[in-house]
Amino acid sequence: MGEFHYQPTPLMLPTSRYDERRADFAVGFISMLKHTTGEWYGKPFQLMPWQEQIIRDIFGIVDADGNRQFRTAYVEVGKKNGKSELAAAVALYLLFADGEAGAEVYSCAADINQASIVFNTAKAMVEQCGDLAKLSKLVPSTKRIIFPHTNSFYRVLSSETKSKQGFNVSGLIFDELFAQQTRELFDTMTKFTGDARRQPLYFLITTAGRDKTSICYEIHCKALAVMDGSKIDPAFYPAVFGIEEGDYWEDDRVWRRVNPSIGVTIPFETVQAAYEQAKQNPAEEMHFRQFRLNEWCNADIRWMPMDKWDACGQRDVGPNSPSKHALLEEEMESRACYGGLDLSSTGDLTALVLVFPPTGSDTKYTVLPYYWLPEDVIDLRTRRDHVPYAVWKKMGVFNTTEGNVVDYDFIVAFIAKLSERFRIREIAYDRYGAEKIRRDLEELGAEHAFEVIPFGQGFISMSPPSKDFYQFVMEGRIRHGRHPVLDWNMSNVVIDQDAAGNIKPNKKKSTEKIDGVVAMIMGLARATLGGGINQSAYAERGLLFI
Protein backbone atom coordinates (compact mmCIF):
# COMPACT_ATOMS: atom_id res chain seq x y z
CA MET A 1 0.00 0.00 0.00
CA GLY A 2 3.03 2.29 0.15
CA GLU A 3 4.64 4.24 2.94
CA PHE A 4 2.36 6.75 4.64
CA HIS A 5 3.53 10.27 5.48
CA TYR A 6 1.12 12.10 7.75
CA GLN A 7 0.25 15.70 6.97
CA PRO A 8 -1.77 17.46 9.71
CA THR A 9 -5.12 18.66 8.44
CA PRO A 10 -5.63 22.41 7.89
CA LEU A 11 -8.77 22.03 9.98
CA MET A 12 -6.64 21.88 13.14
CA LEU A 13 -7.19 24.93 15.33
CA PRO A 14 -4.24 27.15 16.32
CA THR A 15 -4.88 26.13 19.93
CA SER A 16 -4.85 22.41 19.07
CA ARG A 17 -1.89 20.12 18.55
CA TYR A 18 -1.13 16.83 16.88
CA ASP A 19 -0.36 14.22 19.55
CA GLU A 20 1.64 11.64 17.64
CA ARG A 21 1.63 9.20 20.55
CA ARG A 22 -2.17 9.09 20.65
CA ALA A 23 -2.38 8.81 16.88
CA ASP A 24 0.16 5.97 16.86
CA PHE A 25 -1.78 4.21 19.59
CA ALA A 26 -5.02 4.33 17.58
CA VAL A 27 -3.28 3.13 14.40
CA GLY A 28 -1.54 0.39 16.37
CA PHE A 29 -4.78 -0.85 17.91
CA ILE A 30 -6.47 -1.08 14.52
CA SER A 31 -3.44 -2.83 13.03
CA MET A 32 -3.90 -5.53 15.68
CA LEU A 33 -7.32 -6.34 14.20
CA LYS A 34 -7.89 -8.61 11.21
CA HIS A 35 -10.04 -8.36 8.11
CA THR A 36 -13.22 -10.40 8.03
CA THR A 37 -14.25 -11.04 4.43
CA GLY A 38 -13.08 -12.32 1.07
CA GLU A 39 -9.45 -12.62 0.11
CA TRP A 40 -8.51 -10.35 3.02
CA TYR A 41 -10.01 -12.64 5.67
CA GLY A 42 -7.62 -13.21 8.56
CA LYS A 43 -5.03 -10.72 7.34
CA PRO A 44 -3.93 -7.84 9.59
CA PHE A 45 -5.90 -4.63 9.18
CA GLN A 46 -3.28 -2.50 7.48
CA LEU A 47 -4.84 0.92 7.06
CA MET A 48 -4.79 2.36 3.57
CA PRO A 49 -3.35 5.90 3.36
CA TRP A 50 -6.74 7.62 3.20
CA GLN A 51 -7.95 5.61 6.20
CA GLU A 52 -4.81 6.29 8.21
CA GLN A 53 -5.11 10.01 7.55
CA ILE A 54 -8.63 9.98 8.99
CA ILE A 55 -7.65 7.94 12.05
CA ARG A 56 -4.64 10.10 12.83
CA ASP A 57 -6.63 13.31 12.39
CA ILE A 58 -9.55 12.19 14.55
CA PHE A 59 -7.63 10.54 17.37
CA GLY A 60 -4.36 12.46 17.21
CA ILE A 61 -5.51 16.09 17.11
CA VAL A 62 -6.35 17.32 20.61
CA ASP A 63 -7.34 20.67 22.05
CA ALA A 64 -5.67 22.64 24.82
CA ASP A 65 -7.30 20.39 27.44
CA GLY A 66 -6.02 17.23 25.77
CA ASN A 67 -9.43 16.17 24.46
CA ARG A 68 -10.14 15.33 20.84
CA GLN A 69 -10.86 18.38 18.75
CA PHE A 70 -13.30 16.57 16.48
CA ARG A 71 -16.60 15.29 17.85
CA THR A 72 -18.21 14.45 14.49
CA ALA A 73 -16.50 12.77 11.55
CA TYR A 74 -18.33 12.56 8.22
CA VAL A 75 -16.83 10.04 5.78
CA GLU A 76 -18.50 9.92 2.37
CA VAL A 77 -17.04 7.49 -0.14
CA GLY A 78 -18.25 5.02 -2.77
CA LYS A 79 -19.15 1.38 -2.24
CA LYS A 80 -16.50 -1.26 -1.49
CA ASN A 81 -13.82 1.21 -0.43
CA GLY A 82 -13.68 -0.29 3.06
CA LYS A 83 -15.65 2.24 5.07
CA SER A 84 -17.64 -0.42 6.97
CA GLU A 85 -14.51 -2.20 8.20
CA LEU A 86 -12.99 1.15 9.13
CA ALA A 87 -16.13 2.01 11.10
CA ALA A 88 -16.03 -1.38 12.86
CA ALA A 89 -12.41 -0.76 13.87
CA VAL A 90 -13.33 2.70 15.19
CA ALA A 91 -16.19 1.21 17.21
CA LEU A 92 -13.85 -1.35 18.81
CA TYR A 93 -11.27 1.31 19.60
CA LEU A 94 -13.92 3.41 21.33
CA LEU A 95 -15.03 0.35 23.30
CA PHE A 96 -11.69 -1.14 24.33
CA ALA A 97 -8.93 1.46 23.98
CA ASP A 98 -10.35 4.94 24.40
CA GLY A 99 -9.96 4.95 28.16
CA GLU A 100 -13.64 5.84 28.67
CA ALA A 101 -15.24 4.33 31.77
CA GLY A 102 -18.76 3.09 31.17
CA ALA A 103 -18.41 3.66 27.44
CA GLU A 104 -21.61 3.39 25.40
CA VAL A 105 -20.96 2.78 21.72
CA TYR A 106 -23.85 2.39 19.32
CA SER A 107 -24.44 1.41 15.69
CA CYS A 108 -27.54 2.68 13.98
CA ALA A 109 -28.85 3.06 10.44
CA ALA A 110 -32.10 3.26 8.51
CA ASP A 111 -32.98 -0.30 9.54
CA ILE A 112 -31.70 -2.96 11.91
CA ASN A 113 -30.12 -5.03 9.13
CA GLN A 114 -28.05 -2.13 7.85
CA ALA A 115 -27.05 -1.17 11.38
CA SER A 116 -25.92 -4.75 11.98
CA ILE A 117 -23.40 -4.76 9.13
CA VAL A 118 -20.75 -2.78 11.01
CA PHE A 119 -21.51 -4.63 14.25
CA ASN A 120 -21.17 -8.05 12.63
CA THR A 121 -17.83 -6.98 11.15
CA ALA A 122 -16.67 -5.79 14.59
CA LYS A 123 -17.84 -9.05 16.18
CA ALA A 124 -15.86 -11.07 13.62
CA MET A 125 -12.79 -8.94 14.36
CA VAL A 126 -13.10 -9.67 18.07
CA GLU A 127 -13.50 -13.38 17.43
CA GLN A 128 -10.25 -13.39 15.46
CA CYS A 129 -8.31 -11.56 18.19
CA GLY A 130 -7.61 -13.85 21.13
CA ASP A 131 -6.87 -11.02 23.59
CA LEU A 132 -10.06 -9.09 22.83
CA ALA A 133 -12.13 -12.27 22.83
CA LYS A 134 -10.88 -13.06 26.36
CA LEU A 135 -11.55 -9.54 27.62
CA SER A 136 -15.08 -9.27 26.22
CA LYS A 137 -18.41 -10.99 26.19
CA LEU A 138 -20.22 -11.41 22.88
CA VAL A 139 -24.02 -11.49 22.99
CA PRO A 140 -25.18 -12.13 19.38
CA SER A 141 -28.85 -12.46 20.33
CA THR A 142 -29.02 -8.82 21.42
CA LYS A 143 -26.14 -7.67 19.18
CA ARG A 144 -23.88 -6.54 22.00
CA ILE A 145 -20.18 -6.68 22.77
CA ILE A 146 -19.54 -6.12 26.46
CA PHE A 147 -16.23 -5.03 27.99
CA PRO A 148 -16.70 -5.81 31.72
CA HIS A 149 -13.34 -4.31 32.77
CA THR A 150 -14.65 -0.76 32.24
CA ASN A 151 -18.37 -1.58 32.39
CA SER A 152 -18.67 -0.64 28.72
CA PHE A 153 -20.61 -2.00 25.77
CA TYR A 154 -21.14 -1.70 22.03
CA ARG A 155 -24.60 -2.50 20.68
CA VAL A 156 -26.89 -2.13 17.69
CA LEU A 157 -29.96 0.08 17.77
CA SER A 158 -33.04 -0.28 15.62
CA SER A 159 -34.39 2.71 13.72
CA GLU A 160 -37.11 3.25 16.33
CA THR A 161 -36.42 6.55 18.09
CA LYS A 162 -38.89 6.52 20.95
CA SER A 163 -36.63 4.64 23.37
CA LYS A 164 -33.40 6.50 22.63
CA GLN A 165 -33.82 9.57 24.79
CA GLY A 166 -31.39 9.77 27.67
CA PHE A 167 -28.55 7.74 26.16
CA ASN A 168 -25.07 8.65 27.37
CA VAL A 169 -23.28 8.17 24.05
CA SER A 170 -19.51 7.99 23.98
CA GLY A 171 -19.35 6.67 20.42
CA LEU A 172 -21.83 6.45 17.58
CA ILE A 173 -21.43 4.68 14.24
CA PHE A 174 -24.12 5.92 11.84
CA ASP A 175 -24.09 3.77 8.70
CA GLU A 176 -25.36 4.84 5.25
CA LEU A 177 -26.78 8.16 6.36
CA PHE A 178 -28.10 8.74 2.84
CA ALA A 179 -30.82 6.10 3.44
CA GLN A 180 -32.46 8.09 6.26
CA GLN A 181 -35.97 9.09 5.22
CA THR A 182 -36.25 11.70 7.98
CA ARG A 183 -33.84 13.45 10.29
CA GLU A 184 -35.51 12.20 13.49
CA LEU A 185 -33.10 9.34 14.27
CA PHE A 186 -30.06 11.44 13.41
CA ASP A 187 -31.18 14.31 15.65
CA THR A 188 -32.10 11.96 18.48
CA MET A 189 -28.70 10.26 18.46
CA THR A 190 -26.46 13.29 17.90
CA LYS A 191 -28.05 16.08 19.89
CA PHE A 192 -27.35 16.21 23.63
CA THR A 193 -26.71 12.44 23.94
CA GLY A 194 -22.95 12.94 24.48
CA ASP A 195 -23.05 16.06 26.64
CA ALA A 196 -21.94 14.14 29.72
CA ARG A 197 -18.78 12.93 27.90
CA ARG A 198 -15.58 14.92 27.46
CA GLN A 199 -14.85 13.66 23.95
CA PRO A 200 -17.73 11.73 22.36
CA LEU A 201 -17.29 10.75 18.72
CA TYR A 202 -20.07 10.56 16.14
CA PHE A 203 -18.64 8.63 13.20
CA LEU A 204 -20.94 9.04 10.17
CA ILE A 205 -20.28 6.91 7.08
CA THR A 206 -22.25 6.97 3.86
CA THR A 207 -22.32 6.81 0.11
CA ALA A 208 -23.83 9.68 -1.87
CA GLY A 209 -27.62 9.68 -2.12
CA ARG A 210 -30.20 11.28 -4.39
CA ASP A 211 -32.58 13.06 -2.05
CA LYS A 212 -31.35 16.63 -1.82
CA THR A 213 -33.88 17.43 0.90
CA SER A 214 -32.42 14.79 3.23
CA ILE A 215 -30.36 15.17 6.41
CA CYS A 216 -27.48 13.44 4.60
CA TYR A 217 -27.38 16.04 1.84
CA GLU A 218 -27.47 18.74 4.49
CA ILE A 219 -24.41 17.22 6.17
CA HIS A 220 -22.79 16.65 2.77
CA CYS A 221 -23.11 20.36 1.95
CA LYS A 222 -21.75 21.28 5.36
CA ALA A 223 -18.77 18.97 4.78
CA LEU A 224 -17.95 20.63 1.45
CA ALA A 225 -18.30 24.06 3.02
CA VAL A 226 -15.94 23.16 5.87
CA MET A 227 -13.47 21.69 3.39
CA ASP A 228 -13.37 24.82 1.24
CA GLY A 229 -13.26 27.12 4.26
CA SER A 230 -16.59 28.84 3.68
CA LYS A 231 -17.96 27.38 6.92
CA ILE A 232 -16.16 26.91 10.23
CA ASP A 233 -16.99 24.19 12.70
CA PRO A 234 -13.91 23.17 14.72
CA ALA A 235 -15.59 19.99 16.01
CA PHE A 236 -16.59 18.72 12.56
CA TYR A 237 -14.24 16.56 10.47
CA PRO A 238 -15.16 16.04 6.77
CA ALA A 239 -13.75 13.46 4.37
CA VAL A 240 -15.61 13.43 1.04
CA PHE A 241 -14.36 11.38 -1.91
CA GLY A 242 -16.57 12.18 -4.88
CA ILE A 243 -16.91 13.80 -8.26
CA GLU A 244 -16.23 17.52 -8.30
CA GLU A 245 -17.70 20.18 -10.55
CA GLY A 246 -16.14 19.91 -13.99
CA ASP A 247 -15.20 16.23 -13.61
CA TYR A 248 -16.09 13.92 -16.49
CA TRP A 249 -17.68 10.77 -15.10
CA GLU A 250 -16.28 8.56 -17.89
CA ASP A 251 -12.67 9.54 -17.15
CA ASP A 252 -10.86 6.65 -15.45
CA ARG A 253 -8.57 9.15 -13.73
CA VAL A 254 -11.66 10.44 -11.93
CA TRP A 255 -12.56 6.87 -10.96
CA ARG A 256 -9.17 6.43 -9.32
CA ARG A 257 -9.33 9.72 -7.44
CA VAL A 258 -12.81 9.23 -5.98
CA ASN A 259 -12.17 5.56 -5.09
CA PRO A 260 -9.18 5.80 -2.74
CA SER A 261 -9.14 2.00 -2.31
CA ILE A 262 -9.05 1.17 -6.01
CA GLY A 263 -6.44 -1.47 -6.72
CA VAL A 264 -6.67 -2.72 -3.12
CA THR A 265 -10.24 -3.56 -2.09
CA ILE A 266 -11.67 -2.71 -5.53
CA PRO A 267 -10.05 -4.17 -8.64
CA PHE A 268 -9.88 -1.59 -11.41
CA GLU A 269 -11.39 -4.19 -13.74
CA THR A 270 -14.53 -4.32 -11.57
CA VAL A 271 -15.06 -0.58 -11.98
CA GLN A 272 -14.35 -0.86 -15.70
CA ALA A 273 -16.96 -3.61 -16.09
CA ALA A 274 -19.55 -1.55 -14.19
CA TYR A 275 -18.80 1.38 -16.47
CA GLU A 276 -19.37 -0.72 -19.60
CA GLN A 277 -22.83 -1.64 -18.27
CA ALA A 278 -23.52 1.99 -17.38
CA LYS A 279 -22.85 3.10 -20.95
CA GLN A 280 -25.69 0.90 -22.20
CA ASN A 281 -28.32 1.69 -19.58
CA PRO A 282 -29.34 5.05 -18.06
CA ALA A 283 -30.42 3.32 -14.85
CA GLU A 284 -27.06 1.59 -14.56
CA GLU A 285 -25.35 4.89 -15.32
CA MET A 286 -27.00 6.54 -12.33
CA HIS A 287 -26.16 3.52 -10.18
CA PHE A 288 -22.53 3.67 -11.32
CA ARG A 289 -22.24 7.39 -10.72
CA GLN A 290 -23.90 7.27 -7.31
CA PHE A 291 -22.35 4.16 -5.80
CA ARG A 292 -19.05 3.88 -7.68
CA LEU A 293 -18.23 7.56 -8.11
CA ASN A 294 -20.05 8.86 -5.03
CA GLU A 295 -21.97 11.48 -6.99
CA TRP A 296 -25.20 13.06 -5.73
CA CYS A 297 -27.35 12.31 -8.77
CA ASN A 298 -30.81 13.56 -9.59
CA ALA A 299 -33.47 11.25 -8.21
CA ASP A 300 -35.34 11.15 -11.52
CA ILE A 301 -33.81 8.75 -14.02
CA ARG A 302 -35.12 8.91 -17.56
CA TRP A 303 -35.29 5.30 -18.55
CA MET A 304 -35.62 4.34 -22.18
CA PRO A 305 -33.40 5.43 -25.11
CA MET A 306 -36.22 6.11 -27.56
CA ASP A 307 -34.13 5.29 -30.61
CA LYS A 308 -33.79 1.73 -29.28
CA TRP A 309 -37.52 1.54 -28.60
CA ASP A 310 -38.40 2.91 -32.03
CA ALA A 311 -36.14 0.33 -33.65
CA CYS A 312 -38.37 -2.39 -32.18
CA GLY A 313 -41.38 -1.08 -34.16
CA GLN A 314 -43.08 -3.29 -36.72
CA ARG A 315 -41.77 -3.09 -40.27
CA ASP A 316 -42.87 -0.12 -42.36
CA VAL A 317 -46.15 -0.35 -44.23
CA GLY A 318 -47.58 1.67 -47.06
CA PRO A 319 -49.83 4.71 -46.54
CA ASN A 320 -52.96 2.80 -47.62
CA SER A 321 -52.20 -0.27 -45.57
CA PRO A 322 -53.72 -1.10 -42.19
CA SER A 323 -51.88 0.29 -39.18
CA LYS A 324 -48.86 -1.56 -37.86
CA HIS A 325 -50.89 -2.34 -34.75
CA ALA A 326 -53.66 -3.88 -36.87
CA LEU A 327 -51.14 -5.93 -38.83
CA LEU A 328 -49.68 -7.25 -35.60
CA GLU A 329 -53.15 -8.19 -34.42
CA GLU A 330 -53.65 -10.26 -37.55
CA GLU A 331 -50.27 -11.95 -37.15
CA MET A 332 -50.91 -12.82 -33.52
CA GLU A 333 -54.39 -14.30 -33.94
CA SER A 334 -54.74 -17.63 -32.13
CA ARG A 335 -51.32 -17.17 -30.47
CA ALA A 336 -50.98 -17.62 -26.71
CA CYS A 337 -50.49 -14.40 -24.75
CA TYR A 338 -50.33 -12.91 -21.26
CA GLY A 339 -51.94 -9.63 -20.28
CA GLY A 340 -51.07 -6.84 -17.90
CA LEU A 341 -53.95 -4.59 -16.80
CA ASP A 342 -53.19 -1.19 -15.29
CA LEU A 343 -56.38 0.28 -13.86
CA SER A 344 -56.55 4.04 -13.69
CA SER A 345 -58.48 6.35 -11.47
CA THR A 346 -62.02 6.57 -12.78
CA GLY A 347 -61.44 9.57 -15.06
CA ASP A 348 -58.08 8.58 -16.49
CA LEU A 349 -56.37 6.20 -18.90
CA THR A 350 -56.72 2.48 -18.33
CA ALA A 351 -54.34 0.18 -20.20
CA LEU A 352 -54.26 -3.49 -21.12
CA VAL A 353 -51.18 -4.84 -22.89
CA LEU A 354 -51.07 -8.34 -24.32
CA VAL A 355 -47.60 -9.88 -24.51
CA PHE A 356 -47.02 -12.79 -26.89
CA PRO A 357 -43.94 -14.89 -26.00
CA PRO A 358 -41.60 -16.23 -28.68
CA THR A 359 -42.63 -19.42 -30.41
CA GLY A 360 -41.03 -21.50 -33.12
CA SER A 361 -38.73 -19.40 -35.28
CA ASP A 362 -40.11 -16.16 -33.82
CA THR A 363 -37.62 -15.05 -31.13
CA LYS A 364 -39.33 -11.80 -30.15
CA TYR A 365 -41.91 -10.79 -27.54
CA THR A 366 -44.77 -9.05 -29.34
CA VAL A 367 -46.84 -6.45 -27.49
CA LEU A 368 -50.35 -5.24 -28.33
CA PRO A 369 -51.68 -2.33 -26.24
CA TYR A 370 -55.31 -1.33 -25.65
CA TYR A 371 -56.44 1.84 -23.93
CA TRP A 372 -59.67 3.26 -22.54
CA LEU A 373 -60.63 6.81 -21.64
CA PRO A 374 -64.05 8.25 -20.62
CA GLU A 375 -65.69 10.01 -23.57
CA ASP A 376 -66.65 13.13 -21.64
CA VAL A 377 -63.13 13.99 -20.43
CA ILE A 378 -61.31 13.88 -23.79
CA ASP A 379 -61.68 17.57 -24.70
CA LEU A 380 -60.87 18.67 -21.15
CA ARG A 381 -57.80 16.45 -20.94
CA THR A 382 -56.61 17.61 -24.38
CA ARG A 383 -56.77 21.28 -23.32
CA ARG A 384 -55.51 20.80 -19.77
CA ASP A 385 -52.70 18.30 -20.37
CA HIS A 386 -51.67 19.45 -23.86
CA VAL A 387 -51.83 15.83 -24.97
CA PRO A 388 -53.49 15.01 -28.34
CA TYR A 389 -56.26 12.80 -26.97
CA ALA A 390 -58.77 14.28 -29.44
CA VAL A 391 -56.47 13.47 -32.38
CA TRP A 392 -55.87 9.98 -31.08
CA LYS A 393 -59.62 9.49 -30.74
CA LYS A 394 -60.07 10.28 -34.45
CA MET A 395 -57.23 7.87 -35.23
CA GLY A 396 -59.03 5.18 -33.24
CA VAL A 397 -55.98 4.31 -31.16
CA PHE A 398 -57.87 4.11 -27.88
CA ASN A 399 -61.36 3.14 -26.86
CA THR A 400 -63.86 5.40 -25.14
CA THR A 401 -66.51 4.59 -22.59
CA GLU A 402 -69.64 6.63 -22.06
CA GLY A 403 -69.71 9.29 -19.37
CA ASN A 404 -66.91 10.89 -17.36
CA VAL A 405 -65.61 7.78 -15.61
CA VAL A 406 -64.10 4.59 -16.98
CA ASP A 407 -66.73 1.87 -17.34
CA TYR A 408 -65.10 -1.32 -16.09
CA ASP A 409 -68.01 -3.40 -17.40
CA PHE A 410 -67.16 -2.16 -20.89
CA ILE A 411 -63.53 -3.19 -20.37
CA VAL A 412 -64.52 -6.68 -19.24
CA ALA A 413 -66.75 -7.06 -22.30
CA PHE A 414 -63.89 -5.89 -24.54
CA ILE A 415 -61.51 -8.42 -22.96
CA ALA A 416 -64.12 -11.11 -23.61
CA LYS A 417 -63.93 -10.27 -27.34
CA LEU A 418 -60.14 -10.30 -27.24
CA SER A 419 -60.17 -13.73 -25.62
CA GLU A 420 -62.09 -15.05 -28.64
CA ARG A 421 -59.38 -13.73 -30.95
CA PHE A 422 -56.26 -14.54 -28.90
CA ARG A 423 -55.46 -17.37 -26.53
CA ILE A 424 -55.17 -15.30 -23.35
CA ARG A 425 -53.71 -17.47 -20.61
CA GLU A 426 -53.32 -14.98 -17.77
CA ILE A 427 -54.12 -11.38 -16.93
CA ALA A 428 -51.97 -9.74 -14.24
CA TYR A 429 -53.47 -6.78 -12.41
CA ASP A 430 -52.58 -4.37 -9.64
CA ARG A 431 -54.48 -5.74 -6.67
CA TYR A 432 -55.06 -2.26 -5.21
CA GLY A 433 -58.63 -0.99 -5.71
CA ALA A 434 -59.60 -3.69 -8.20
CA GLU A 435 -62.01 -5.91 -6.30
CA LYS A 436 -65.06 -5.69 -8.58
CA ILE A 437 -63.23 -6.02 -11.88
CA ARG A 438 -61.18 -8.85 -10.39
CA ARG A 439 -64.38 -10.81 -9.66
CA ASP A 440 -65.77 -10.06 -13.11
CA LEU A 441 -62.53 -11.10 -14.80
CA GLU A 442 -62.33 -14.30 -12.78
CA GLU A 443 -65.84 -15.21 -13.95
CA LEU A 444 -64.81 -14.39 -17.51
CA GLY A 445 -61.60 -16.38 -17.09
CA ALA A 446 -63.52 -19.42 -15.96
CA GLU A 447 -65.48 -19.21 -19.20
CA HIS A 448 -62.52 -18.51 -21.49
CA ALA A 449 -59.83 -20.53 -19.70
CA PHE A 450 -57.51 -17.80 -18.44
CA GLU A 451 -56.33 -16.97 -14.94
CA VAL A 452 -56.39 -13.62 -13.15
CA ILE A 453 -53.13 -12.95 -11.27
CA PRO A 454 -52.57 -10.23 -8.64
CA PHE A 455 -49.32 -8.41 -9.27
CA GLY A 456 -47.59 -6.10 -6.78
CA GLN A 457 -46.21 -2.73 -7.82
CA GLY A 458 -43.15 -2.69 -5.54
CA PHE A 459 -39.52 -3.47 -6.29
CA ILE A 460 -39.95 -7.18 -5.52
CA SER A 461 -42.44 -7.72 -8.33
CA MET A 462 -41.51 -4.98 -10.79
CA SER A 463 -37.71 -4.92 -10.82
CA PRO A 464 -36.87 -8.28 -12.48
CA PRO A 465 -39.33 -7.89 -15.40
CA SER A 466 -38.39 -4.21 -15.79
CA LYS A 467 -34.76 -5.22 -16.21
CA ASP A 468 -35.75 -8.06 -18.54
CA PHE A 469 -37.81 -5.67 -20.64
CA TYR A 470 -35.00 -3.14 -20.92
CA GLN A 471 -32.55 -5.84 -21.95
CA PHE A 472 -34.98 -7.20 -24.54
CA VAL A 473 -35.36 -3.73 -26.06
CA MET A 474 -31.59 -3.30 -26.20
CA GLU A 475 -31.30 -6.68 -27.94
CA GLY A 476 -34.17 -5.99 -30.35
CA ARG A 477 -36.25 -8.81 -28.90
CA ILE A 478 -39.40 -6.71 -28.45
CA ARG A 479 -41.83 -6.13 -31.34
CA HIS A 480 -44.45 -3.40 -31.19
CA GLY A 481 -46.69 -1.68 -33.71
CA ARG A 482 -45.59 1.92 -33.08
CA HIS A 483 -48.82 2.55 -31.21
CA PRO A 484 -48.77 6.34 -30.59
CA VAL A 485 -50.12 6.14 -27.05
CA LEU A 486 -47.68 3.42 -26.02
CA ASP A 487 -44.82 5.35 -27.67
CA TRP A 488 -45.87 8.41 -25.69
CA ASN A 489 -46.07 6.39 -22.46
CA MET A 490 -42.60 5.02 -23.07
CA SER A 491 -41.09 8.46 -23.61
CA ASN A 492 -42.50 9.58 -20.24
CA VAL A 493 -41.06 6.85 -18.03
CA VAL A 494 -38.89 7.84 -15.09
CA ILE A 495 -37.78 5.03 -12.81
CA ASP A 496 -37.13 4.63 -9.12
CA GLN A 497 -33.99 2.82 -8.08
CA ASP A 498 -33.11 1.57 -4.60
CA ALA A 499 -29.69 1.10 -3.03
CA ALA A 500 -29.46 -2.47 -4.31
CA GLY A 501 -29.99 -1.36 -7.91
CA ASN A 502 -33.59 -2.61 -8.18
CA ILE A 503 -35.79 -0.51 -10.45
CA LYS A 504 -39.44 0.17 -11.16
CA PRO A 505 -41.39 2.77 -13.16
CA ASN A 506 -42.56 5.67 -11.02
CA LYS A 507 -45.90 7.18 -12.02
CA LYS A 508 -45.57 10.23 -9.79
CA LYS A 509 -42.11 11.22 -11.02
CA SER A 510 -42.73 10.45 -14.68
CA THR A 511 -43.42 13.47 -16.85
CA GLU A 512 -46.82 12.17 -17.96
CA LYS A 513 -48.81 8.96 -18.18
CA ILE A 514 -46.99 5.61 -18.26
CA ASP A 515 -49.93 3.23 -17.78
CA GLY A 516 -49.21 1.19 -20.89
CA VAL A 517 -45.60 0.59 -19.89
CA VAL A 518 -46.61 -0.61 -16.42
CA ALA A 519 -49.19 -2.95 -17.95
CA MET A 520 -46.63 -4.20 -20.48
CA ILE A 521 -44.08 -5.02 -17.76
CA MET A 522 -46.70 -6.97 -15.81
CA GLY A 523 -47.67 -8.89 -18.93
CA LEU A 524 -44.03 -9.56 -19.78
CA ALA A 525 -43.42 -10.90 -16.27
CA ARG A 526 -46.10 -13.53 -16.80
CA ALA A 527 -45.07 -14.24 -20.40
CA THR A 528 -41.46 -14.94 -19.45
CA LEU A 529 -42.63 -17.39 -16.79
CA GLY A 530 -44.81 -19.22 -19.26
CA GLY A 531 -47.86 -19.41 -16.98
CA GLY A 532 -49.12 -22.22 -14.82
CA ILE A 533 -48.70 -20.60 -11.40
CA ASN A 534 -51.14 -18.52 -9.47
CA GLN A 535 -48.67 -16.34 -7.65
CA SER A 536 -45.88 -14.19 -9.01
CA ALA A 537 -42.67 -16.17 -9.01
CA TYR A 538 -40.88 -12.96 -8.10
CA ALA A 539 -42.85 -12.81 -4.87
CA GLU A 540 -41.92 -16.42 -4.08
CA ARG A 541 -38.25 -16.34 -4.91
CA GLY A 542 -37.48 -12.73 -4.05
CA LEU A 543 -35.30 -10.37 -6.01
CA LEU A 544 -32.64 -11.43 -8.46
CA PHE A 545 -29.73 -8.98 -8.33
CA ILE A 546 -27.86 -8.40 -11.57
Q: What does this entry show, briefly?
A:
The chain is an alpha/beta fold and 546 residues long.
Which key features would you list for this structure?
Rossmann fold, seven-stranded mixed sheet, disordered C terminus, Nucleotidyltransferase, domain 5, 20 strands, alpha/beta, 2 domains, single chain, 546 residues, eight-stranded mixed sheet
Tell me what you see in this structure:
The chain is α/β, with parallel strands linked by helices and 546 residues long. The chain has two domains: 68-241, Rossmann fold, CATH 3.40.50; 306-541, Nucleotidyltransferase, domain 5 (2-Layer Sandwich). Helices cover 40% and strands 17% of the residues. The chain is built from 20 helices and 20 strands. It is elongated and about 85 Å long. Mean pLDDT is 88; it is low at 316-321 and 531-546.
Secondary-structure blueprint of this entry?
Elements: E1 17-18, H1 20-32, H2 49-60, E2 61-62, E3 72-76, H3 83-96, E4 104-108, H4 112-128, H5 130-135, E5 137-139, E6 144-147, E7 152-156, E8 171-175, H6 184-190, E9 201-206, H7 215-228, E10 236-240, H8 252-258, H9 268-280, H10 282-292, E11 301-302, H11 306-311, H12 324-332, E12 336-342, E13 350-356, E14 365-374, H13 378-385, H14 389-395, E15 399-401, H15 408-421, E16 423-429, H16 435-448, E17 451-454, H17 459-475, E18 478-479, H18 484-492, E19 494-497, E20 503-505, H19 515-529, H20 537-541
Helix pairs in contact: 1-2, 3-4, 9-10, 15-16, 17-19
